Amino acid sequence: MPGFLARRVLIALPTIFLISVFVFALQHLLPGDPVLVMAGEERDPEVIEALREKYRLNDPIPVQYLAWAGNALQGDLGISLRTNQPVLELIGEKLPVTIQLAVMALIIALVIGIPAGVISAYKKGTWIDWIANLVALSGLSVPNFWLGIMLILLVSVKLGWLPASGYLPLSEDPLQSIRTMLMPAFVLGTALAATLMRHTRSAMLSVLRSDYVRTARAKGLKEKTVLVKHALRNALVPVVTVTTLLFGELLAGAVLTEQIFTIPGFGKLVVDAVFNRDYAVVQGIVLCTGIAFIFMNILADAAYRVLNPRMRDT
Amino acid sequence: MRLGKTLGAAALLALGTGLAQAQDFRIGLQEDPDVLDPDQSRTFVGRIVYASLCDKLVDITPDLEIIPMLATGWEWSEDGTELTMTLRDDVVFHDGTPFNAEAVAANIDRSKNLETSRRKSEVRSIESWEVVDEFTIKITLAAPDATLIAQFADRSGMMLSPTAFEAAGEDFGLAPVCAGPFKFVERIQQDRIVLEKFADYYRADEIGFDSVTFLPIPDTTVRLANLRAGDLDMLERLAATDVASAEGDEGLQVEKATSLGYQGMTINVGNGPRAENPLGSSKLVRQALSLSIDRAALNQVVFEGAFAPGNQPFSPASPWYNADFPVPERDVEAAKALLAEAGHADGITIEVQVANNPVQTQVMQVIQAMAGEAGITIELAAKEFATLLADQSAGEYTASQVGWSGRVDPDGNIHQFMTTGGGINDSKYSNPDMDTFLNEARLSTDPALRKESYDAAVALQQEDMPIVYLYHPVWIWALDDSVSGFTPYPDGMIRLHGVSQSN
Amino acid sequence: MSAVVDPHAAAADPVLPKRQSRAWAKFRKSPSALLGGVIVVFFVAVALLAPVLPVPGPADTDWSAVRKAPSAAHPFGTDEIGRDVLSRMIWGAQASLLAGVVSVLIAVALGVPLGVLAGYRKGWTDAAISRVTEALLAAPFLILAIALAAFLGPSLQNAMIAIGISAMPVFIRLARGQTLSVMTEDYAESARAVGVGHLALIRRYILPNIFPPILVQATLTIATAIIAEASLSFLGLGQQPPAPSWGSMLNIAKNFLEQAPWMALYPGIAIFLVVLGFNLLGDGLRDALDPRDT
């Protein structure tokens, strides 16, 4: 195992390098000048030149990249061109927010998705299966920004049950914090629940057909025991690996949900930074999410190998 | 430091939920402000925060008269090159530093000389300054500049604590220290800005809240939903199409004020090779474009009549408006005739770039339909804001639908756009007569004389039409009905003096 | 030499035709798959027939009929500047379906060859392609699409390219995995042993075998792509005015939920139905083509 991990981490390094170069190049190829955006309405040419010099935006691109990479390796990811705040600090602020959202969404997804998948696999072919599938697919088919707005109108305005937007850190007020995140987590979670349900269902289906389940049934074990102790445990193996991957995607992909519910997390930060050409922020975020995603990948592979000895040969 | 502030804010919130007396006022903003340093800041919403955080030398009334704030009075010398200001003696900055002429001098120096100062062009006319006595300062200008006092009613006149900015330098914006009714507590980018009441404020009795929280919520629907749900106490820039619904809502009140700014189409008349097209080279074609638009209908369709149609840099309600040129009615026949006169009887095709947000694209789609009937085919190029600005600056456009947020002094709405080599003259319009009128208008402080110059400038604009003015936005605020004492100002600022909320 | 069995004869896999008809029979028996198929065919027909259907033009404005409720003249009501919503729905079908299909075509056209190459050549080629794929996957999909669309300029075509490139990694992975597993099969090994050329091998063995899972994935990805286009339109990238697309219609409609709910209702339902249809179709195809299912 240690050999495997070391190898994977080593392989990950060129990928990380590729990601950083790719995003850097892309940003600088983007039309639009961050200094013009920063200069705002009154575009004083003197100020614009001063800003360009200060942020070394006149240097050739490879030079800028090397400067950035050099600093990044020492832990300095630059500052936001918009507010002068250090990028690392920004990430430190936003990361807990997005993680909280991701965890809550994942919990909702697991709570809805896995039982639904199990039931629908068990009752395959019946109307329960059909309904569950339809509901799952509906969860996948509705654009989440749409669902978000409808929820705000219904739950916040008409019913007044939950706050429409904003965010409170868990450390300040756990209950209120969860309340503000509930709707966005629900929106994200239901889409994930759909995917989870389908994976669980198909994993359960293949497990239920397998020999050891038939043996367990033949032995006369109660159906519930068969289901939970034998089938589910084995079906969960691919589901676990999918979950770890989904978590990585959640971390990075809650963009629209964060816009609608005004959750100050990663997704919102990156989108705004792209539109403002706030280079350093986009760089820093994509680097961090890239590393997180790769880490999740490695974790998923490791988990799969631990759970399924047959995979060790590949 | 951060922990302390967070704990402080947490304590404040705990107090807020525990005791009914500690009042927090929550304001919903359309955007997140940029850096909170008046010398470096460039967003409109930043100014809204400053209205509570940083007092200025002078302020305005809703009728745009300049009144004392941190300054008690001012006097111009005979030739208009010396401005002597007397200051209040009972003001102290949030960190205890006393406010006096030395502090003002340090502030002017920073606005002029800080490397990344965005205020340089606003205070360009200041040559030198002298501390006459503890509460009197004399400012000497290179040439007469009637606009300076109005500049002091905005960010250039905001007084920052010299102790703070000498220590923090360019990072002042991370923890701003000013002399306004509220002082800075904390700021979480794109989440909130929290200010708390400053006990030693010289007009503390006019302030009815213990803290103010600014919450940027970009989506207008969600912002209104927040207000309705009780998570906000007021919001700025209610969508014009939500006005009817909000006015009909018993729990809300709606306030309006016509903005100092405008929205229009800037036409490339001399900015690089792309100016060589029928629209850019012929003023007749530009006049035709203007005549093909039904501004009243535009206002009705897109804004439900809430905004103000316009044809000059100043709104029809402004004292600087040239009444000889009222907002024209649509005249398709005249437009076609002008096109024919310019040699384009078969019509023309032009590309107009526009910011890709729903409101502006709606405006342009309506104009597209209207102009089409006069033979002017418009192709729309919706661009992301950053690209739009860059292309406009570089001359990579035929016409660009952009606006200007407006300034108190009329010079701020026209000079930089219309003078040869003006800082924001993206159309590269150049007419020596225009330069004369606008530069003259800066010299005298007599409003009547200035109006003559601006009238002449506007008349010339109607001929040459480098910008086709379309409308003047109206600032619309929605407030919870428990809020009272709010006064709408045309500069769009939220002044909390005299505002209170009953539980 | 003549004693050797002609590998090309064996390559004309006798299993294939039977498998196809078995798959079709299974497909036909599943009600959800058929429903999906019907929905998809319906919307494709609407999109193709747009020019000849008797509705007003999608860009025809009418100042006096701004945001009017559904009526005989306008069955789905009118939008924020007086255009007929039904008409914009029909023309919008073209844009949304195009966005879905073309993006996926781009993703498949780029991804499958790369994946096959990686799985076939293995070694350094595989390593390089896999690292690039990982890098693409690690950049969050929507961020990538936003950055690409901003770089190329907001328009429907560029949105399709952006979505296509962002969706490519899935197909690379899939094609690579399938190629690897086909190559370990006996018939492939023996074909190589008797000297069947690379291209012939790919054409006769690999492509037919990877086609089913690619088809399934493509169908499901079309659904994702349609939602992605709606998301991009929400951010102002994607189909530009005055041309309609369901996503941009929804974007505007959310500001008028109280005053004109029909502006949001119909595009919302349409996106939902189309995406559902593709998902059902994809699922049906997967069940039908799955060799393990008896």
Rg calc of chain B: 24 Å
Distance between the termini of chain C: 41 Å
Instruction: Tell me the radius of gyration of chain C.
Output: 23 Å
In this structure, how is the largest beta sheet of chain B organized?
A: 7 strands, mixed
Overall pLDDT of chain B: 90
Helix content of chain C: over 70%
pLDDT averaged over residues of chain C: 80
Largest interface summary: A-B, 53 and 52 residues
Which stretches of chain C are low in confidence, meaning pLDDT under 50 for 5 or more residues running?
A: 1-16
Cα shape of chain B: globular
Notable characteristics:
heterotrimer, B: alpha+beta, six-stranded mixed beta sheet, C: 294 residues, mainly alpha, 11 helices, disordered N terminus
What does this protein structure show overall?
- The complex is a heterotrimer of chains A (314), B (503) and C (294).
- Chain A is an all-alpha fold and 314 residues long.
- In chain A, 77% of the residues lie in helices and 0% in strands.
- Chain A has helices spanning 2-29, 34-39, 45-54, 61-73, 87-122, 127-141, 144-158, 174-208, 211-218, 223-253, 255-261, 266-275, 279-307.
- In chain A, 46% of the residues are buried.
- By secondary structure, chain B is an alpha+beta fold.
- A seven-stranded mixed β-sheet of chain B has the order 8-9-10-1-11-19-12, sandwiched between helices. Chain B has a six-stranded mixed β-sheet with strand order 14-18-13-17-15-16. Chain B has a four-stranded antiparallel β-sheet with strand order 4-5-7-6, covered by helices on one side.
- The two termini of chain B are 34 Å apart.
- In chain C, helix 2 packs across helix 11 (262-289), helix 3 (31-49) crosses helix 11 (262-289) and helix 6 packs across helix 7 (156-183).
- Chain C has 294 residues and is mainly alpha-helical.
- Chain C has helices spanning 7-11, 15-29, 31-49, 85-121, 123-138, 141-152, 156-183, 186-193, 198-234, 246-253, 262-289.
- The interface between A and C is large, with 46 and 39 residues.
